[in-house]
Amino acid sequence: MPHFGGSYSTSDLSRKSGDIIAEALRRPVTITQRGKPRLVLLNMEDYERLVRRSDARPAGAMDTMPGDLAAELGTAVDAYAAESEGGKP
């Protein structure tokens, strides 16, 4: 994953768009709104790399998971649910 560059506010986009685009061509740039990160501006090569990586990851389902791993996950989910309801695991 590329190193993130600078961080700019949404109001900077209108005032410094040329500088922001130039930086985004080199590395991803974070765009903030009200002090919180909201967007990432990145060049097409970085975007395409991310898309290729996401397509390469296999997706799974509980019914295809090995039994011992599914049981461990079920136990963890039950413990989390009990904890979030104020009970003890």
Give your account of this protein's structure.
The protein has 89 residues and is of the alpha+beta class. The protein has a single domain, classed as YefM-like fold, CATH 3.40.1620.10. The chain contains 3 helices and 3 strands; from the N terminus they run E-H-E-E-H-H. Strands 1-2-3 form a 3-stranded mixed beta sheet, with helices on one face. Helix 1 links the parallel strand 1 and strand 2. It is elongated and about 55 Å long. The model has no long low-confidence stretch (mean pLDDT 83).
CATH classification, class level: Alpha Beta
Distance between the amino and carboxyl termini:
38 Å
What is the spatial order of strands in the main beta sheet? Answer: 1-2-3
- Largest sheet descriptor: 3 strands, mixed
In DSSP terms (H or I, runs of 4 or more residues), the helix count works out at 3
Low-pLDDT runs = none
Portion of residues in beta strands equals 15-25%
Structural class: alpha+beta
The CATH homologous superfamily is named: YefM-like domain
Q: Report the average pLDDT across residues.
A: 83
Measured as a percent range, the helix fraction is 40-55%
What characteristic shape results from the CA principal axes? Answer: elongated
For the secondary structure, the number of strands is 3
Name the helix and strand elements from N-terminus to C-terminus, one letter apiece: EHEEHH
Computed CA radius of gyration, to the nearest angstrom: 21 Å
Number of spatially distinct domains: 1
Under CATH, the topology can be stated as: YefM-like fold
